[in-house]
Sequence to fold (77 residues):
Amino acid sequence: MEFFNASDDISFGSQPEPADLEALAARGVKTIINTRFPEEDQGDLPPECARAEADALGMRYLNIPVSPVEFTPASLA
Fold:
């Protein structure tokens, strides 16, 4: 999984594989936000599985679908 730090408190990355969640928890990640829509390819970690695994590792999991065409200066403010 590619993982980038945007700031001390915010990071982003590619779609995690099941084993990546344990590594994220070890890095101190507290919340995972999945921005994909349900009809998009979820890889090997569908949202319901990711949520259960994140919960088991003490992380919060949110699914907030965002379309890139919806990005405007106002929506990002």
Summary: The two ends are 28 Å apart (CA to CA). The chain has one domain: 3-68.
